[in-house]
Amino acid sequence: MQLSIAIPSANCSYLEMLSHLHCRPATLLTFSKSFQIYRRTKFPSSMASISTVSTEKAASSNQDQPTQKTHLPLQVSPPVPASISAQFQDYYILVRCCVGLSKFDSSFRFFVLVCWHSLKWLNLVAKRLEKFKTTIFTQMSMLAIKHGAINLGQGFPNFDGPEFVKEAAIQAIKDGKNQYARGYGVPDLNSAVAARFKKDTGLVVDPEKEVTVTSGCTEAIAATMLGLINPGDEVILFAPFYDSYEATLSMVGAKITSITLRPPDFSVPIDELKSAISKNTRAILINTPHNPTGKMFSREELEIIASLCVENDVLVFTDEVYDKLAFEADHICMASLPGMYERTVTLNSLGKTFSLTGWKIGWAIAPPHLTWGVRQAHSFLTFATSTPMQWAAAAALQAPDSYYEELKRDYMAKKAILVEGLKSVGFKVYPSSGTYFVVVDHTPFGLENDIAFCEYLIKEVGVVAIPTSVFYLNPEDGKNLVRFTFCKDEETLRSAVERMKEKLIRR
């Protein structure tokens, strides 16, 4: 069978590709995955078998002559254009080799065509983002829906926020507060953030010059990185870390240095940090209370980090979205330590404390010389955040102390249900002093790594957890750990524990 479909040249344009295939880019990705499966099953030895493809003359055509093998004119490794990224080079070689074959089935010809086009499309992704995939939270939540699993993976509550905050949002909408807000926040919210910060830390900040309202803390993180970090600047992270840190720093072009926090207590390896920090370090990014481990940085650890930052003229970015979910010790804000406010950007949000994660209201607090950079980036990211939700957030931040006390009691009860349940199932559970997460060692159940375990847990047990290897620069560091969340109602937590007791078997 001769090749009847013309393979496009390597220089075909994106529009030519689409017009030739008559399908959408998303379809190309689907076919690409199918192609990879086809390759593994049909051509298990991949390049080796393709590079020695032969045709045998049928013996029946001439019984007196020996069977002849005619090798097709294929290169073992066709030259790969420099524009093809490293992770796609094998893919490129396979497709280009297949183009030279004169005999293969029609479905394979079709996959060659589709995958060649798909390869071209995938290569349009900016190199700084090539390594990043759909976030693990999205992947696991989609699997939860597909398999009817209880989602103890993604950190969003399955219960609603307080009525007085929702009513404030409704009232703001009815009052016509629905147009663009001032770029750095409606005045009432800026003032409310400053007032809460003073109450929590004792620091007085100017709401007009030192508070910037953003679309969630994730945008505050992005605006801070984009506004204050230059390409090539070194930023130190503590692994495991919230996945947006690495992605945002990659977009900035920063050099990322990772210091690994290890179980059982995930303490900061001070000597390693001292060796890592230098005059080339631009900033350290801290998350306390810490996602995913639940660790709270101790005063001693924060003071050592602070002294190193002062000594080496390093900035500190602190993600403190779980500051009101500190169970076993008081939260310490890095900016409140002596000499640190002038070099610190404090990042926070409404969602975790008020169970309103979908509102995406966050903020950054920093001295004017740092706020300027944050606001410059924010202006060209989102410019402004939802106006009625900002007015409601201002009302939320005026909640009495009793609200936070009840919140902590409620979460401590939920935590107890999950932690005791996980221990009874057979997990090794590590201490969690803050956040609404707990990390466990899954190895008693015999799966090779965290991803394999989480897939088994979803498909066979019906419970979702998050594999922690995605939170490390070196995934091997997290392969034995998975994260569960307890920001769910008590019935859901008990149901998840019961499923694990019934179906998880230690090996």
From TrEMBL:
A matching Pfam family: Aminotran_1_2
Cofactor names: pyridoxal 5'-phosphate
Domain Aminotransferase class I/classII large: 150-499
Zinc recorded as keyword: no
GO cellular component: a single term: cytoplasm
Entry GO MF terms: kynurenine-oxoglutarate transaminase activity; pyridoxal phosphate binding
UniProt xrefs under SUPFAM superfamilies: PLP-dependent transferases
Keywords: Aminotransferase, Pyridoxal phosphate, Transferase
Protein name from the UniProt record: Aminotransferase class I/classII large domain-containing protein
Organism: Tetracentron sinense (Spur-leaf)
